[in-house]
Amino acid sequence: MTVYIDPPTWPGHGRLWSHLVSDVSYAELHAFAEALGVPRRAFERDHYDLPARRYADAVSAGALEVSSREVVRLLHGAGLRRRKGASRSAAPDAQRRSS
């Protein structure tokens, strides 16, 4: 299982945030996040938002540190990128990708 995390540079709600992604499937991403204790409500379209204070936890659990640009490239390359406003029905079949 390989998931990726970018540096906590995204501001929001008075904090800085990282993005946690998979380049294989949403199922893989959800499993990693669950094992890390990240609530499902932190999932947004194609990634989890993690506050800066959880960055080291994700890396210790096995997330690979990459740039924000690399996060987007990985999502596009895997066919898992979901843009704002995209319908869920247009999203890739996560179950197909995880098998």
Automatic annotation (TrEMBL):
DUF4031 domain span: 3-76
Domain of life from the UniProt record: Bacteria
Pfam families cross-referenced by the UniProt entry: DUF4031 (PF13223)
Region (Disordered): 80-99
Protein name: DUF4031 domain-containing protein
